[in-house]
Amino acid sequence: NPICQGSSLSLDATTSLAYYFSWTGPSYSSSPTSNPDVTVTNVQTSGAYTLVARNPLSGGCTATISSASVTVNPIATVDAGASTETVCQSTTAYTLSGASVGGGASTAAWSIQSGGGSLSSTAQTGSPATVTFTPSATGTTVLRLTTNDPTGPCGTVFDERTVTVSPAATATAGGPDAVCQSGSAFALSGASVGGSATTGAWS
Predict the structure, then answer these.
(1) What's the pTM?
(2) Measuring CA to CA, which residue among 29, 11, 19, 20 is closest to residue 67?
(3) Which residues pair with 164 in a beta bridge?
């Protein structure tokens, strides 16, 4: 049966021989021991694992007594791009650049886990970096990028991108005003600033 890349592999054999046993395989070799059962950790490569027996009473003669072929499936990988970022509240969409999918996965889909805003697509896509997000609501939005389920034992994985949406600056000049020509100053009443702006300047 196939196993997932990075998982552990249990190799065992049943024997009544008083021999010393060792396993060899892709980038693996065990020390001779009277117990033929071993666990290989963090398996990365497909290939054959061979059990060799050595008879201590025959001058150390060895023989191959078992072999197991193991298929290792690549795990799904995903990167949502920037883990955190701050943008300005806007009705203009921006591209979720830097996102990617790989390994055993071929596609991934964006979703909004919390907060506001909108995504141009929530469908599985092989190009997640082309999807756009519109930060129309202030506050913190958590976007999640989830892979498809690869064939075999490896499951889906996800990565998240936290977007802090700051309020857009606003300015109101007031007016219109109708005044008489005069050398006297008059107050520009009705002017105000708001949103993320705290001050304003006339020009």
Answers:
(1) 0.76
(2) 11
(3) 86, 140
